[in-house]
Backbone:
């Protein structure tokens, strides 16, 4: 007998060698859930196996397991209604299914850790979170978010409780829910597009236009789906840069992007041509914003009243600015 720790609980477990044909895939496996359960029906075991065995990481596992002569880490299994369900290790089980096609006798059995105690759905969520959200982190962000989203919908737990149960920050949980919900609501649950929507929703410049009620969402989603936006980094570096601009040119370019008149690439090129994306401009703009901030000015006035040092530094800054303006012909 052994024990397995899930969160702060300990469960009785037993190491066993089981016939892998008796093992069932976990139907809530987030790696394939969005693909095989898109129709809302519980997927069949054969459908899960077919989906998993086609994945590249499972094919790589097959080679690794064959070279090692078996798995080094047992599958984690529970029994329900007299059947063995694999909670952790579904990809490895799929790799074994591939190996049996080559040598059924050699790969007939597999090492398992069977949890003997009853285990709740909350415990399952925590267990898989330990492995894949804060442990190996081998699930993609999309897969992690999908799992957190389903947990939120099924349990109705507060975000902070969900975060604590799997060791994620509440900020991460909230962003996962925000992005996955957005993708789901806009009928685009392709895992490879996660980063596009993640960058889009966390960009503060873009948020200004979304909060203003402009139809930027419709344009952006359409351009992601059609492939007009070539890569996720362009959302941050190109669209996000223009969106953060505060002058008339930036606002006009953003309006043209929203109306579909120009691409984000054309908008960025035209914005960059104004010279307002360079390092010097950015630093000067930030300097101005700091000095014109009301709170900053109040603090300066208060502290300047008690020391001459601030006044001295301000005079030096004034002299430097006047010299620079003269040097550039202004």
Residues:
């Amino acid at each position: 007998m052994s024990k397995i720790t899930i969160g702060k609980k300990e469960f009785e477990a037993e190491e066993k060698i089981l016939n892998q044909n008796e093992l069932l895939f976990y139907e809530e496996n987030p790696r394939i859930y969005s693909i095989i359960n898109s129709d809302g029906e519980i997927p069949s075991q054969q459908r899960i196996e077919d989906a998993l065995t086609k994945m590249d990481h499972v094919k790589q596992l097959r080679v690794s397991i064959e070279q090692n002569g078996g798995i080094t880490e047992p599958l984690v299994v529970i029994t329900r209604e007299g059947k063995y369900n694999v909670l952790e290790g579904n990809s490895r089980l799929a790799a074994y299914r591939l190996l049996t096609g080559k040598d059924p006798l050699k790969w007939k059995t597999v090492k398992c850790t069977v949890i003997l105690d009853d285990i709740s759905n909350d415990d399952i969520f925590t267990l898989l979170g330990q492995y894949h959200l804060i442990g190996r982190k081998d699930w993609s962000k999309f897969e992690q978010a999908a799992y957190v989203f389903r947990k939120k919908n099924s349990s109705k737990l507060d975000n902070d409780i969900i975060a604590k149960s799997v060791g994620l920050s509440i900020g991460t949980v909230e962003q996962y829910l925000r992005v996955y919900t957005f993708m789901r609501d806009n009928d685009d649950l392709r895992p490879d597009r996660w980063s596009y929507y993640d960058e889009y929703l966390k960009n503060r410049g873009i948020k200004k236009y979304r909060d203003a009620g402009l139809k930027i969402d419709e344009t952006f989603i359409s351009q992601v789906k059609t492939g007009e936006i070539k890569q996720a980094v362009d959302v941050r570096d190109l669209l996000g840069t223009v969106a953060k601009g505060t002058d008339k040119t930036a606002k006009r370019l953003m309006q043209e992007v929203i109306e579909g008149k120009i691409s984000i690439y054309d908008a960025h090129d035209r914005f960059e041509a104004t010279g307002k994306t360079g390092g010097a401009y950015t630093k000067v703009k930030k300097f101005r914003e700091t000095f014109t901030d009301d709170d900053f000015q109040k603090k300066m006035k208060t502290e300047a009243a008690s020391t001459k040092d601030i006044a001295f530094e301000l005079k030096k800054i004034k002299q430097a600015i006047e010299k620079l303006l003269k040097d550039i012909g202004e």
